[in-house]
């Protein structure tokens, strides 16, 4: 299945170290080679890069590796096609507008017999179960509220929608509107919180080490979420099947479902 990577921080941070290992899973250290993408929120704006080429061969991936874009919310995806052909329209993450903000979504899994009714406001461009799920989530939110609800109301609604869709199969996903990053686990999803005192980290997929104490400030706080741990000398926390977590300012702010 696909690979997910997310980062949520309390201050704009680059994802160069994590992406260096992550992009290698798109055809080098793993067999996911059916496209990739990454989205960076910058204030109300969002930079979205997608490609139907594998991330180890993509010139866009080289650009991201060499260009230390800083953001408080980042979502990346490496695709292993289960539904929908390999083409640009099926590459994750997907982006839509809701309540005057961009929303970004990426999915790892396979939803069986999932064909929600066409929405009034949101319809897929490609032909993946993932984009259908994203459109269904946003359609349900917009039909329920004309303006953004409270964070608590939104979290509860998203958790309920995630549980309903997950009944159709594997539904690991990440969702962000630039103010938070939400993650839902069906099978495999892990996270790590990095904050002072910072230590060194070594990548699983490449022999690269960084000393975060040399590139951070004592006030920095970063949450990194991935399908599988990206480093082999840090303790990553697995999410439980059915668990839904909202990350804000570099740490879990709300969570629902079984916890380890």
Defining traits:
260 residues; alpha+beta; six-stranded antiparallel sheet; 4 helices
- CATH fold field value: Glutamine Phosphoribosylpyrophosphate, subunit 1, domain 1
Class inferred from helices and paired strands: alpha+beta
Low-confidence runs of at least 5 consecutive residues:
none
Give the mean pLDDT.
Answer: 89
Describe the main β-sheet briefly.
7 strands, antiparallel
CATH class: Alpha Beta
Q: What's the number of structural domains?
A: 1
- The secondary-structure element order is EHEEHEEEHHEEEEEEEEE
The portion of residues forming beta strands comes to 35-45%
Shape: globular
Strand order of the largest sheet: 3-2-4-1-12-9-13
Radius of gyration: 17 Å
Instruction: Give helix % range.
Output: 10-25%
The end-to-end span amounts to 23 Å
For the record, the CATH architecture stands as: 4-Layer Sandwich
Sequence-ordered SSE layout with sheet pairings:
Blueprint: E1 3-14, H1 16-22, E2 36-42, E3 45-51, H2 59-66, E4 70-78, E5 94-98, E6 101-111, H3 129-144, H4 151-166, E7 169-176, E8 181-184, E9 190-195, E10 200-202, E11 209-211, E12 221-226, E13 237-238, E14 244-248, E15 251-256
Describe the model.
With 260 residues, the chain is α+β, with helices and mostly antiparallel strands. The protein has a single domain (3-256), classed as 4-Layer Sandwich (Glutamine Phosphoribosylpyrophosphate, subunit 1, domain 1). It contains four helices and 15 strands. The chain has helices at residues 16-22, 59-66, 129-144, 151-166, and strands at residues 3-14, 36-42, 45-51, 70-78, 94-98, 101-111, 169-176, 181-184, 190-195, 200-202, 209-211, 221-226, 237-238, 244-248, 251-256. It has a seven-stranded antiparallel β-sheet. Helix 3 runs antiparallel to helix 4. The chain is globular and about 50 Å long. The model has no long low-confidence stretch (mean pLDDT 89).
């Amino acid at each position: 299945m696909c690979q997910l990577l997310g980062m949520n921080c309390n201050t704009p941070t680059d994802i160069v170290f994590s992406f260096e290992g992550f992009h290698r899973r798109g055809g080098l250290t793993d067999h996911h080679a059916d496209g990739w993408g990454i989205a960076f929120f910058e204030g109300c704006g969002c930079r979205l890069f997608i490609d139907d080429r594998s991330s180890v061969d993509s010139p866009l991936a080289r650009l991201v590796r060499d260009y230390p874009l800083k953001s408080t919310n980042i979502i990346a995806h490496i695709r292993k096609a289960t539904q929908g052909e390999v083409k640009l329209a099926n590459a994750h993450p997907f982006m839509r507008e809701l309540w005057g903000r961009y929303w970004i979504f990426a999915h790892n899994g396979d939803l069986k017999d999932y064909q929600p009714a066409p929405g009034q406001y949101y319809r897929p461009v490609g032909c993946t179960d993932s984009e259908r799920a994203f459109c269904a989530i946003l359609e349900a939110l917009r039909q329920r509220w004309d303006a953004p609800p409270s964070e608590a109301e939104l979290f509860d609604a998203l958790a309920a929608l995630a549980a309903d869709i997950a009944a159709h199969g594997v539904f690991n996903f990440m969702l962000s509107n630039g103010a938070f990053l939400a993650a839902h686990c069906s099978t495999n999803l892990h996270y790590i919180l990095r904050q002072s005192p910072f230590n060194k980290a070594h990548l699983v997929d490449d022999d690269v080490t960084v000393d975060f104490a040399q590139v951070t400030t004592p006030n920095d706080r970063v949450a990194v979420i991935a399908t599988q741990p990206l480093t082999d000398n840090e303790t990553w926390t697995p999410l439980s099947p059915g668990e839904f977590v909202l990350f804000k300012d570099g740490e879990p702010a709300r969570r629902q479902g079984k916890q380890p």
